[in-house]
Amino acid sequence: MAGSDTPMALDGLVVLDLSRILAGPTATQLLGDLGATVVKVENPKTGGDDTRSWGPNYAKGKDGTPTDLSAYFMAANRNKLSISVDLATEAGQQTLRHLAARADVVIENYKPGGLEKYGLDHTTLRAAHPGLVYCSISGFGQTGPNRDQPGYDLMAQGYGGIMSLTGAPDGPPMKVGVGIADVMCGMYATIGILAALRHRDATGEGQHIDLSLVDAQMAWLINEGTNFLTSGKLPERRGNAHPNIVPYDAFACADGHILLAVGNDAQFARFCDAFNLTGLAESAEFNTNLARIENRVDLTERIATVLKDISCADVLARCHAVKVPAGPIHTVAQALQSDQAQARGTVVAMETPDTAKGAVELLGNPLKFSRTPVQYRRPPPRFGQDTNTVFEMFDIKPKMD
Q1: Domains in the chain, please, with CATH?
Q2: Which positions are annotated as active-site residues?
Q3: For the segment 312-334, what is each residue's pLDDT rounded down to a tens digit?
């Protein structure tokens, strides 16, 4: 782990985080990992970020009872300072305006227009601070007929089309197993904020970033979205299969399942040789990827028949020997405990003195910088634990309503 004197890419950047749940916190955690000072504002009336109560898994205190550090909350809230401020009060609004004056970035995920009555909206704050970068995340964006609809990951996955593509062909529409619409929205938010800061540094001019869960989700329909726009044909649910490459799927072996990803005709020929599929690669039905797509059902059945009586280890060994992409299907435990994950620092431990174990394990940041490495400076905070520290840091004099 890098030392405290190691430079970080976003040293000196101040982020005022008015977001909660996952999309906004994903973005601000990433900015914090890169060195920004992130001040997370939490509502004392609700006990803070909603996800603090999203069990069933919590870090336990020394007395064995659950703390407010749920696993869900900890997934997106390290490297932040938590302050307890009620923005519905005049004192709270003054505090946040004071912090906004010192901030480079404000990020929020209230309903469109929801912060105007508090004087904490983009128009009001930018009038006083023209260089401010202000990022608003909502379900459907600041404009459009659905602007006032609430935004949740599940609804975004449904509205944005990804659920119609996910799941078995003969099964119901299926959401992705994690809140991917939220996470990807947070990634887009981070990119947008960094781009706006680049512009601010060049011109002195801040700007408003209007980002929605649904817009972001539609953007990462990627090839399937473009398949539809090109052909006019609705994509189908194919389970683990690929719409544009065959064979590219999960296959049952004698003792489990493996993944096979044949990316070109040469790989397909080598695969056929490795499994004694004589003549298949030369057949007009299968000798090109387009032919394999047109005959995917027949080809998939032939491959499945061969692989079902061979062990997973043997199938993978044969594929790797001829440089055909194939791999295992890990459980979460197998993935996070693999030698590759250990070598890459996929899991990090952060000290939490007030918890029973004295530390929590978190998923590490995947970015590997040669000059400004990610640092894990602050564990996920308890609710409001840094209020006094932040007030002193930014010379805020608490006022009573």
Answers
A1: 14-220+344-393 (3.40.50.10540), 263-324 (3.30.1540.10)
A2: 182
A3: 999 999 999 999 999 999 999 99
